[in-house]
Amino acid sequence: MSFCQTTPRIIAPKKVLEKFQHVTINGGIEFDDPCRVARIAWAYREVVRRSIKYLFEGKSVEELVKALYNILPNYIYLETALKQARTIVEGLLEKEVETGRVIHAEIKRMWFANRGNKFDGGNRNIRIHVRENHVVVKIRDPWGGWLEGRAFFGERYIPLLKELEELAGRREESYGVVISFREHPRIHVQIPLHLYLKHFSTPKPPGYGLVAGFDLNSDRINVIVIDRSGNIVSLKTLWFSEATRPGFPREKAGYLRLNALGQAIKYVARIGADYVAFENLYEVKRKRFTENPTANRKISKFAKRQLLLHGILRSLREGLHVVLVDPRGTTNSKEHDEVMKRHGLDRHTASAYLVALRALSKVDINQHKHT
Asked: What is the pLDDT of residue 297?
């Protein structure tokens, strides 16, 4: 029996695929001159704060650059800050539409970032240089010179970062960097997705052309596996009801959900699935609330997009292809009711079935056969 391995990929609209070009890895960082680094972070935050106000006033990017260059005298830092401010404004406007009231942003924490550019050695203002067990980080000071720091990542990331540095040196890849100061200084490096998967995905031979559909909820994950004819092969529900109890620690709840999702993805890979399918939450503009206050509390505290992102990356690492499908009608529709009756499924498993069925129409099952 021989197998043909395939590179895992994401099947989704082009606009959504743009969100998955990079994976962020995180590490700690120490600075030789923390005061000068703090000055950059303060200026960057001030630019974001003022940009939000100016964008609401209708000022153009050109006007903002002229008005704020004296605060942060570096065009690339400035450009990155303005882009982040624009993203924040877009999010605020969405919330205003959703709630019907004016939403204000409070920017308290300090941070700074710089976008990548492969023609600038990977990143013009924040560069990484890999050593045996740590990474030297060089930071351009907008007021002159360079600052240096030492970043510490897990040992498993060193080969990945070393290859990224080499590719950036040849002008083949770039990487964005964020320096944050939540509790301790942290560094966040954006790695090209294909490079991340090269180092961390598990080579997987083709399975049986099966598709697994997932329905992600605040207290459970429902997964169903179907064959190319839409027949049910397997179904499973992983519960974590305690995660929705009042007073239950949010971080612990997040861990339970991520752990359960990881188990479910390993399960479908083990039984021969080639594809996993999720609702494309990037097409959902707002959370759907109910008349039940308890249910609304669960919904408001449930970071579903974060869980989806974890599911996508975990699936790719397992060698599975990911399909994102249109979520409309997967929860409440005539088709949903018919699936429940025909297959004797509860409403959450029926949602998972519809997700899998929609994914089935988007993939080429014939390329995933045992030979």
From this structure: 42
What type of residue sits at position 105?
A
pLDDT at position 189, please? 98
pLDDT tens readout for residues 261-300: 999 999 999 999 999 999 998 876 444 444 454 444 444 4
- C-alpha 98/C-alpha 92 separation (Å) is 10
User: Within 10 A of 199 (CB to CB), how many other CB atoms are there?
Assistant: 15
Place of tokens 């494309």: 280
Please say if the pLDDT value at position 258 is more than 90.
yes
What is the value of pTM for the model shown?
0.85
pLDDT surpassing 90 at residue 1: no
Residue of 277, 275, 272 whose CA lies nearest to 205: 272
- Given the candidates 3.30.420.10, 2.40.50.140, 3.90.1170.50, 1.10.10.10, the CATH classification of the domain at 202-367 is 3.30.420.10
What tokens were used for 133? 């067990």
Axis-axis angle for helices 34-56, 75-99 (nearest 10): 50
Give domain limits for the chain. Answer: 23-200, 202-367
Rounded to an integer, what distance in angstroms lies between the CA atom of residue 16 and that of residue 283?
9
